[in-house]
Amino acid sequence: MRPFDFLRDRDWRNAVLKDGFGVGFWVFVGVAVLAGLACYVLKGPEAFHHALVRDIELVFGLVPRVFVAVSIAAVIWFLLPRERLSGLVGKESGIRGLVVATLAGAVTPGGPASAYSLLTVLATSGADRGAAVAYITAWATLGLQRVLVWDVPFMGAEFAILRIMITIPLPIVAGLIARRLPLTLVVKDENEKQEEVDTNLHK
């Protein structure tokens, strides 16, 4: 099979279109149209034209950054030793496990589909709940592509650095709290079977 033969797969193309142009996409389109109409009615055609030009400039400015950010994150994640990763974030890993989970979450590319798929693999492979919480918290707050695509272009490098410095401890703190809570973590595996993950509290 050649590298790009998947482009000829109709099921793959349909899945991409469904994911990219699903309900969420059309909700955003509807909100954008309503906001544009409100701008035109309330502020007049000149303001509407100015806003439209700025939006187009923003889109063309973001597309290259999105491509580069996703490519970097994908390469980093591909190079990570995923088989060893689950062993590094087990219940005996301590703070080191939380740090590893935080780094993994920060470099995980893509949206919830990729992040939660990996989270399930980690949880069913021996990762404790603290590492699982640290991973998904880092993905949500420290994602590399979010920093490159959103923080830096919209708010500037200084804001991005400040936000990262403040946010870095949060996944580890969240993981420590998760380890202390007297709860049982239950995760669905790929076959939709319930598997209870060992969540004994660390002494």
UniProtKB/TrEMBL annotation:
Membrane topology field: Multi-pass membrane protein
Keywords: Cell membrane, Membrane, Transmembrane, Transmembrane helix
Entry keyword annotation includes Transmembrane: yes
Superkingdom of source: Bacteria
Main localization, broad class: membrane
Compartment annotation: Cell membrane
GO cellular component annotations of the record: plasma membrane
Membrane-spanning ranges: 20-42, 62-80, 100-123, 130-148, 160-178
Protein family: Belongs to the UPF0718 family.
The protein's name: Putative permease
Upper classification of the organism: Bacteria, Pseudomonadati, Pseudomonadota, Alphaproteobacteria, Hyphomicrobiales
